[in-house]
Each structure stands twice: as C-alpha cells, then as structure tokens.
Write a structure and sequence with these properties.
Shape of chain A: globular
Oligomer: homotetramer
CATH architecture of the largest domain in chain A: Alpha-Beta Complex
Strand content of chain A: 25-35%
Number of domains of chain A: 2
Number of strands of chain A: 11
CATH topology of the largest domain in chain A: 3-hydroxy-3-methylglutaryl-coenzyme A Reductase, Chain A, domain 2
Number of helices of chain A: 14
CATH superfamily of the largest domain in chain A: 3-hydroxy-3-methylglutaryl-coenzyme A Reductase, Chain A, domain 2
Radius of gyration of chain A: 23 Å
Strand order of the largest sheet of chain A: 2-1-3-9-11-10
Largest interface: A-B, 137 and 137 residues
Structural class of chain A: alpha+beta
Helix content of chain A: 25-40%
Chain lengths: ~375, ~375, ~375, ~375
C-alpha cells in the first residue's frame, strides 16, 4: 500500500466520530502511539472477542508441550469446536508438527523489452546467474536473504519473481524495498529494458494460486496425528471409517466446483488466530490453502490424519505483532519476538487440524447442523 | 462450526491469562454478555486499530452521498492509500455502485445412492421440481427464502446445492438449519437414498472457486468511475494511458501463475472493513474475487474504471454486527441493521476500487515501493 | 473458422507435393469429392493405423450388447490395454452406461453498453425472459432447439451464453449461425448496445474449463462396473484394495499441480476414437474432463468403479462422420447416422473406463513401465 | 499404456470387418508392417483429409524461409483461415519464432513413508542432491538426459517429478523406462520407503495444468509478428485497434468461466498438424495452452501480435513419425528425423498464430459466423 505526502495530510480529516461516547475511542490512547506505524487517520480500536482454545499437546520441531491458542472471532462455536478437536488430539497422544519448507516472501516486477529476443536473452542470463543481484538486494535489509530469482516470459515481457527469506517477519515491506533496489540495478545493467512495472501478477501475494503451493510462499507445514477409533467415537460420536470416505466425496465435488484445494476449517481458524496475533488477514487466501491426507489402519482401528498447509504466511516480529493485545496473544503461545515464527506456523496448522477433526466428526455424526441450531436457539 | 454439550463444558477451562494486568481483559465486561453467542471460553477482546478512510462520494442504488469507511488493520498505508483513491473518485465526480445480483447463501449436502440410475433419477426429479422442498426449508426461518436447488451427479453420488436469500444477514446458520430440515424431508421422500453427508464441497463456502463467480454467492457488485487524466496525474502522478496496459500484463502473468482472478487490493480492503464491522473474515477467499475492466477514451482523456465483485458476503444484522465497536462502525456508514446489506456491499466495493486506483496509480508512478520505504524509515 | 472469397481462392495454391509418388495422394480421389465441405487446398489423406478394441459388453440406455471400438492411434499398447480393460469388464458382467445430461452446444457473444446500468438492465431482462429469442434462433436450423440463454456482466460488458440442442450433430456450425441471427435480433431490440463481439470467452469451446463441467456442454455420461477382486487379480495381477488408495494419492497431487480433474486415460482413448469416427479432435480438452469414483466392498471383495465424463462432445451426422473410413468405423459400432449420438457417447465413456481399469491395474501391479519396456525392446 | 501376454493374444480376435470391401483395409498392407510397434489388433488405416496451408514466411531460430503446413482435419475452413492468417504474416514481412525453453518430458512416481519425518528427510535429501540418480536413469537410454528432479510432500507421501531431455523424440517411453530404473535405485537407497506408485499426478502428462506452464513440459515457443493496419484491413477487413480491446474482454470472461488460458485457435490447429505428422494427439490438452500478447503502436499503425505456447509436445523421430503419410507430411516441412524438433515446434506455433490472426480478424470484421453460413450453404 501507499503513503505519500498527499495522503498523510489526509490524517487531518475531521473524525466523523462524536467525541467522548465512542467505544472505539475508549482507552484509544493505549494504541495511539503504537498504532502510528500501522494505521492512518486513527480513530480508536475495534474490539474482537477472543476465546482461548486448548490446551493441545504438540510434538513440533519448535512447538513442544501444551499450548493454548487465542482466537479472535465473532463466529459462535469456532473456539469450542477447535477445543473439541484438540481434546481428540490430546487423548490420541498429541500431534506431530513440522515446517518442511520455508517458502520465503515474493515480489514479481515485470520488464518489457523491444522484442522477444531481448526478453529471451534477459531470461536466459538471469536464469544462469542471479548471484550478482543478491547482495544488491540484501544491502537494503539487516536480515533478509535472497533465496531465489526466477523469470517467466510472455512475448516481449519478462516477470521476475524474487524470493527472500524474511526470518521471523512476514517481510512484505522488506522484500518490496529490496526489490525496488533490484529493479534499479537491473535497469542499469540491462539498458535494453524498455519499460518496467513493480507489480507483475506472479508474486502470489494475497491470492489463492497454484504458484504458491508449487513454488512456495510462507511456511509449508505438515501436521500428523494417529486417532484411535474409540477416542473419535467417544469425543465426536463418529466412526473413523467414515471420514476418509466422506472426505473423498467432498473433494471430488470440490474439484468439480473449481476449488483449488480441499479442506473445510482452515479459512475459519487462521483468520481468528491472525487477528488475535497481529498477522495480516489479507494473506488468508494464500495461507488457507490446505489438503488433508488420510491413512486408515483397520486392524489397529486407527486413523492417521495429516494436513499439509504449504503457504502459512506469518510473522512474530514487526507488523501488528507488537501492539498490546496482539503481543499478549503471541506471548500466550510463547511466540512473541525473534526465533518463534516456525513455532507460530506449527500452532496455526495444529489449530486448523483440530477444527478439521471436530468438523468432520460432527458431519459424520450428523450433528453438524444441530449444533448450529442449538446455538441459535439459545 | 460445532457446539455440543461436551464442548460447552469446555468453557470451564481455566484461562491461561493472569488476572488483572491483561489488556485483553480490560473493559472486557463490555463484551462478556454480548459475546455470549459469538464465542466460547471468552478471555477478553483483541483491539485492532481502526482508521477512517474517506469521505467518498457514492452514487449507489443504496449508498447515496458522502461516506466514511472504517478500516481495522495493522498494515500501514492501507487507510491512507484508500483515502487517496477516494480523493481521485471525489474529484472525478463520484462513483456509481450497484448490486446486480443477490447470489444468496449456499449449502451443499450429498446423497449417496445404490447405483447411478437411482442417482440420475433423483437428479432428474429434483431438477424438474424442487418447489415441494422450498416451504419445508422456509418453515425453519422467519425471513429466509429458497432461491434455487441444483444437483450434480458423480457416479452414485449427488451433491444438492441449495441457495437461500438471507435478507440482511450473512445467513450461514439460517441456511444450515433449513438445509438440515431439507435433508430430513428428502430422506423421507426418497427411501432409495443409501447415505447422506451434510457438507459436500459445492457450497463454495469460504473458498475461492469458480462456482461462486458463475452461479452466485453473496452480493454481486459493480462499481464504475470515469477518471479524467488531469485528476489522476494530479493526485497520483500517473498517466491513465499506462494503467490498462500495465494491468493487462499483470493479468496475463496472473493467469500464467494460476490465479483465479486479477486484482490487487480487494484482499487488503475487505478484511479491514469486515473486521471493523463484525463480518466473518473467513469469507474473504470468496468475497475478494474481483475483476477490473477498463475503457480508455483518448479523445476525452478519461479512463473508465470498473470493478466487478461477484461474491461480496456481508450482513448488517446478526453475527458480530451487534457488538459495540462493530455496531459503531456500521453506524458510521449508516449501515447498521435491517435494510442496509446492499448499501454495505456497495461501500465495500467502492473502498476496494479506491484502493485499487491508488495502488495502480502508485505503481504507474513508480512510487509504490518508495512509499513503503518512506513509511519504514519513519 | 473462416472461409471467405479471399481464402477460397487460396485453394488455387500449387500443391508442394510432387505428383504421382505421394502416399498422401494415393487413392485420394476416394476423398476428393467427399472432402469438399471438410477441407480446403486438399492434398490427399493422412493414414492413421486403426486397431479394434473389444468386444466389450455394455448395458447402456442406448448401447446394448457386445461392441467393438475402433481406435486410430500411433501409440503402441493403447488398443491392447483398452482391450484388456474390456476383458475385466466382460468377466465382471459388463458395464452400465447412461447419458445423464444433454449439455447441448454453446456460443457466447458479448454486448458492450454505455454504462453498467444499461448492462445490468439488459442482463435482468434477458434473465427474466429469453423466450422471444428462441424462435428467432430456431428459424435458422431444421433441428436445433434453444435450451438456455444465460448472461454474465463484467463492468459495461455482458456475455450471453446460448445453449442449443444439436440433436445427433456436434452442432458447432448450427449454433454459430443461430447465434448470429440472435445477435442481430438483440441489436434491433436493444439499440442501447454500443458494440458487440461474436466470440466472448464463455462458450467453453475447445478448452478445459469448469463452466463446462458445471453448466454442461456435450453429453454427460456416467459408467459403472462392479469388479470382483478375483477377476482383477487374474487379468491385471492387481488387488482391488490398492486402487482407490493409489488413485486418492494421484488425485491429491494432481490438485496440488493445478489439474482441473483427475483421471489418466481419457485423453488417450477419446482422440483415438474421435479420429477414427470423424469427430473434431479439437474438442478433446473439454471432452476429456473426467472424474473417477470408487466404492470398495470388502466383504464381497468387489470394487465399484465409476467414471463421470460431463462433456463428451460427439456427433453421428455431419462433420467428418460421412467420410468413407470414418463412416465405416461408426458403422462398426452401429453408431452411424441419426439417433445414435448418445450410443456413441456411451461407448466413448466405456472405452475410456476400460483403459483406466487396465492402466491402474498395471500401475498397482508395478507392471506399467515394464510394458513400455517390453514393447520398446521388440 | 500396457501390453502384456494376456493382451497381445488379443490380436487373435477375429476382425469385425468384412474382408475385401473395407475402405479401412484398402492398401492396409502399406501400414501392416510399419504399424506393428504402433498398434495392436490392426484393422487398416483411417484416412483423414489433409489440406496444405501456406506458404508462410518464418524467421525462426530453426525454421527459416517459406513453409507449407499440412493439416489433417475434417473441419471446413480450418485450412483456409490458417492460410489467410499466413497471408497477413507474409505481407507483414514474416514472423519471428523462437524456442525459449526446452521443458523436457516428465514422470512423477510417488513414495509413501511411515511418517511425515521420513518423507521430509527424503525430500530434503533429494532436493539437496539428485546427481547420483541421473546416471542411473541415463544408463537406460542412448540419448535422454536428466534435467531436473523435484519433490513435493503431502503428509507421508512424496511425489518425485523427474524431467528428462528427450532430444528429438516425444520421449514418453524413454522417460518411463528411465523412471522405472530410478524408482528401483531409490528403493535400494531408501529402505524406509513403505510403498511406491509409478504414476503420481504431477507429471502434467496429457492434462491442462499450471504446473506445465510454470515448470515446463515440451517446448516453450514464442512467436511475434508486427502487422501494419493497412494489411490487416486489406486481408481481413478488420481494424488493428479493435483486436487488443476485443481480446481483453474475451480474456476477462474466459477467466470468469474458469479457463486456464486465453486463446481461440491453438486447440484447432495443433491436432490437425499432430494427426498429419504422427504426433500424439493425447498431448493436446498440455500443448494447446497458449496466451496472446498485444502491443499497439498507434503512431505507426502497427499491431505487434505475440503468442506464447509453453508446452508444445512434439517429436520428429519415433512414435508415429515414421509412418508413410506422417513422414511425408514432416518432410513437407523439412522436419523429418533428428535435429528438427525445435523447427517443428516453431512451425506449430506459427500456424496457430496464423489461425488466431484470421479468427480475430473475422470476429472484428463481424464475418466469423457468415463464413460458417456460406460454407454450410454450399
């Protein structure tokens, strides 16, 4: 997004809010200073109810032990169903979680050339060696590292997708600034460039797109739990035999509808955690891509339930993570500050899996809708 | 999501938060009662900074006049850039906005039959006449109306996608309850059904999917503004000739990447408005589907900029809309309560268009990244 | 495609082929007259080897009894593997086949209006009543019937997707001519139309697109066979327990890759039948969309294998169906001429299923590649 | 596909064709021997009319000079419209063509592990170093070279996508055999593999999938022509100003429909050339992926028209290329045998571009449908 003089002046707009009796404004001084880098024309704070899901037992590479997960939501039953799934996980001995790929963060400027040959030569040159550009980009940041630079050509246009490791930050601004410097260097080294465009459609930013799942963006997390049939039946009144079969029909129709992936809960759970912890909810479309895998052992009466989230885009420093309630929610998971980003990604995946377990359990138990009805009739 | 006895009891979990010195808990009594239907294991409220974008001049079917738009976000420059786009709109004489389709809200249960013939006969029968099922579904709700029932067959399975008009509510619970009743009636009338599943993958709920854009879900909104070149140059230092050309290359690469649609800003603006006004941010993946259209008049030096958002999923009653700050934000737009859902949908589209204008203006002016840098160096 | 004076004159081009010793030209007089409406600048006939797969026992609505299927291909093992799958089908008691939807044939002209309101009013009017347009379109054809007219709006543009029943023909030309007449009538009735475009991107013609699977194009065919484990083991040395599991992993990775659907064989079998029978191979991308469904009965040791092909685009009259070898291949299946289009669609799906059975059997038996190797070493 | 003893015996099936008076069987001895490796249960040859499009002036890296393109089709106007587009190209000074990427040919076996950690470790190990596997694979072929090995994990499953350079052959069998050897070596080196599957859904074989466009499969070809407005008007009676605008609306609606890409003609032209030259028409879904790019120079009244085909999957040796008429058609383009695969790929793209030019010209001139009508009324 953009801030220029002409817009910063806009903060002089008279607030349409009546002073004094505004709930938004109550205690807003708590945030006024802190919010300075996060917002313009500040009017106060929206308050989103936070429920605590958990505890859940996690055997992650980073998240080890029992965790409570704060969820900011106004959707009734979301926290309860997540907690219910966590109960299944706990009684099953906990869940294994692992970040299998750091997909980094991307920008994708476009360069226009005078003909397809210049475009092809540029693509070839960059593909053969982009090492000269990495230090240029890294000179703009204290922690960002260049992971990859790839080019795709369409006619006389070339889209250059740069990937940087943002460490514990979400890294949107870092990669933007490094990319601006990269573009300047490319223009100097390649005078044959006719025009350029900073935003080129292949960054995968804030969209559901196969390029993110295939080539990476954010953290790729895999979680796995072995659920005994007796536990699933006790907690959710459903049979583990039903779940892979029902999920298969769900997936086949989802594919027919044009969905990119097949799951139910991640779009519900991730925004609740993101809002509570100061993440950018705009990344939901990429972060919520997920696929379930099942392996049913009939002899042992155990269902192995695995979820793959290839693009969990989170940070534990910068952005909104330092604001009071956001920081408090991160601290609740021992995820505040440097060194915790993979832990947070693991917990996001674990909470999503927990909700998925509860959802499918209720669907198989034919209780899903009744639950809504019960809630509604309260 | 699900709430059953076993889960409501979970609200007895001890809160992991230390009492007294929690920011989450400060003034939490404000929300405790109100949040009862919206959350479980309540721990307090997350506070998200709210900035006010605007005013923007709207010539909508419902939104008429000047409006301020509250945005809850921690992404710096988002409010400022939206306000900057609104300035372009205002100086261009305002924006036309119109809801062109009420896509309703969907559920998609699945019925399994003993063979493909029973499945085909069921599909044929439901396609020929579903009028008998409408009153059954409508008996469960005071306001919901059945708009459509369509079936798709895969082998011996049939997915039945029901669409209801939820009026001013988002309607997720309403349609769930009506669908549960519908399934019961179908089972009574069609004893040849072998098994059924309440959730079948074709509802389009909370996923990016072509089925929503093609067949409808939420409100389809179209907005249109005619921007004189002089105004675009003055406010954004960009030339209107560049925008359609640059957007075209953006779109071509986006298609190559596997994106479902082509825009930049809607995933940023919509969650900010959704969080501020108590909408369900989980619907972002469907709501943020958008496509830009351009028509450049070189003689008059005017760019017609239009955005189509086919699936804006909002409500002005129920859900989180009644909570204090959420209600206050809706009232700020004169959108609180019954009769305002189309007005809110129009304003969501207008704000997204405003941000899109500012974003592309900054990209064409080669200022996009600089803005981030300026912000960061503050 | 197009033929105008300027192009018909092109048939005067000197043939680059040397006369007399050309295989293309041998017996080409057989086709010269007949090919007149099917090709320009005729030079002779390409000869594609035809193998006969079968027989296969079919219990279709139209295809009843034993059938041989001619396949024109240069891919070794294709006919043999299809025949092997047919053997599995025959020993399993034959396959049930049924056309569950006639999706018709589409064209999608676009109308541009002066503003979004005219576009919206046009869309509303056409959605409410298109009955006046049907007789106009049907006046241009002796057999075509209008099935549906649907509109989608983007900004000031409206794409009008018309669907006609082409009877036993593929119907591409028929629907084109009827649509041209429809456009003329629309322009007369709606002077507010600013510009129009005959081809608008939503016809689904010759592309893989969800719109075809969802809304229909060509014949939707479902086939189903119950395969006893003993027969699958005997013929393919594979276990029926493995197939749904392996296919599930295949589908999950296919979804990750960005495939629209999940099957292996239909793209192989359909073009072979299409070339042999004078169908338009250009429709392969839409025709080959397919999804497998499985239901494993462990007690009875039976695998129910079902395939859904929503968009099989074939004809038994017109196009290339009347050419000598093409007609002969249609007659071989008793599918030549009027009244046979559904029978041909059923047989296309049956042959595809047969190949799918053989393919997955060989994969599960770990023999797939060996077969290629054996062939190669011959 | 598969050939085993049980199926080769099927060639003993009595032919359902009456002897003597079968057109399929006339001169079939011409093909009987040659077809031996290409087909089973041989019954004769299907004859597809071949028209000669051209000549077209090409400035390719490989295709230099004037070329005639043989097209086997039964779709009237296809050859004529392609020739008409070639006339536009010729009078515009010819077309530049270039293969910008050799995407190779893929297979994608799947390995199942006992847990996500073994799967992750395997993925990490293969990603760090697959050089040990290349010689194993290359030992099975005289010309194939390993280009890349990439892995994707879902739960405990890993899909390994291997890419080989097949030289002048399509290479399906070569890569299959090399992959079988690779799997054997992987199983020896990684005893922790629980199960494996030779076909895993990420090969991109014969499907429309973003993975092919993004990561490569077949030849990526770019073609570019600068068309003066006067020439486009003379030959097609259309204005070059209209084409980018109309194509843009076509693309926007195509995206709404769920199409993966946006073009009209490639699915028509490629199968005609593939059938004539003995290519595998089953690869049409991947080969026909294409995107148009336009750059209109109003001052010079010139339209730059470029097409990108990332996945043209062709061969000039092996497969059906050696059969009499197929070889003759390849020789007509001087593309028969080793060293010509890129030339053939260039000519496929050039012919597709020519047809695209003629198609859009006729649409913009409002003559598209009339042409069909004229043809039909003949």
């Amino acid at each position: 997004m953009l801030m220029t003089e002409s817009t910063t002046r806009k903060t002089a707009y008279p607030s349409p809010l009546a002073d004094g009796n505004s709930v938004l404004q109550r205690e807003s001084e708590l945030y006024r200073e802190l919010a300075n880098a996060n917002i313009e024309n500040y009017a106060g704070t929206a308050r989103v109810p936070v429920g605590i899901a958990g505890p859940v037992t996690v055997r992650g590479d980073e998240a080890k032990g029992e965790f409570y997960v704060p969820m900011a939501t106004t959707e009734g039953t979301l926290v309860a169903s997540t907690s219910r799934g966590m109960k299944v996980i706990n009684e099953s001995g906990g869940v294994r979680a692992r970040v299998i790929r750091n997909g980094g963060i991307q920008r994708a400027p476009v360069f226009e050339f005078h003909n397809i040959d210049d475009a092809a030569e540029f693509t070839r040159a960059m593909t053969e060696d982009w090492s000269w550009l990495a230090p240029v980009m890294e000179s703009t940041t204290s922690h960002g590292k260049v992971m990859d630079i790839s080019c795709w050509q369409l006619g006389s246009l070339v889209c250059m997708r740069v990937t940087m490791d943002a460490g514990d930050a979400s890294g949107q601004n870092m990669v933007s600034i490094a990319t601006a410097k990269a573009v300047t260097s490319v223009l100097q080294r390649h005078p044959e460039v006719k025009r350029h465009l900073m935003a080129g459609g292949m960054s995968g930013e804030k969209v559901g797109s196969n390029i993110n799942a295939l080539l990476g963006r954010g953290k790729s997390v895999v979680v796995s739990v072995d659920i005994p049939g007796a536990i699933m039946r006790k907690v959710t009144r459903s049979n583990i035999e039903d779940i892979p079969r029902l999920h298969r029909s769900y997936t086949d129709f989802a594919m027919l509808a044009g969905n990119h992936n097949s799951h139910h809960s991640h779009n519900n759970v991730l925004p609740a955690i993101y809002i509570a912890t100061g993440q950018d909810p705009a990344t939901l479309c990429e972060s919520s891509y997920a696929q379930n895998s099942f392996d049913l052992d009939r002899e042992k009466d155990v269902l192995r339930w695995q979820v793959h989230l290839p693009n969990v885009n989170v940070g534990t420093v910068g952005g909104g993570t330092g604001l009071p309630t956001q920081r408090e929610c991160l601290e609740l998971m021992d995820c505040y500050g440097a060194g915790n980003v993979n832990k947070l990604a693991e917990l996001c995946a674990v909470a999503s899996l927990a909700n998925e377990i509860s959802f499918w359990g209720s669907v198989c138990a034919q209780e899903w809708i009744d639950a809504h009805a019960n809630l509604r009739q309260k």
